[in-house]
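Hey, can you fold this one?
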Amino acid sequence: MSPLLSTRRVASDDLPAIRALHARVFGPGRFARSAYRVRENTRDVSRFCRVAFLDGAMVAALRLTEVVIGTARGALLLGPLAVDPAFAGQGHGRQLVREALDDAKANGVCLVVLVGDEPYYGRLGFAPVPAGQILLPGPVDPKRILAAELAAGALATYRGMVKADARVGCVRGEAP
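Sure. Predicted structure:
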């Protein structure tokens, strides 16, 4: 009998296991990534972060940070998505992303952005952002900035630098 995957929102007592998973998956260079720079001085957990367990062991963790892009609110930055290498390629990361996107949409989030690989994230509804429309701190290959619209036409209303924001909610008609 194969173990069943269980997923849920992150709890504060999950943080040590999440940090250990990030260290195993990404190594010490992870702190130089743009997503980490956006999240500096933010809470460790947002209401959209998720974890996955097999037989009580954490096998995947997903972080989403509430952000403002330019002056437009109602967006999240996805990342990192970490899957234990022993469980990679089994769909656990994709499941966490799908659940998080559904939750975000149900809670009024309009757009989710990330820096990642289109072949992987494209299967989950992410598409390239036009070059120069959305910017992140630090060196980022603009071809790797992807977005998923959770509200029709949302991407067109977001332009500028991504920075952390404690307030979430789609504000339609707000000029970027």
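The longest strand covers residues 57-69. Let me know if you want another pass with a different chain boundary.
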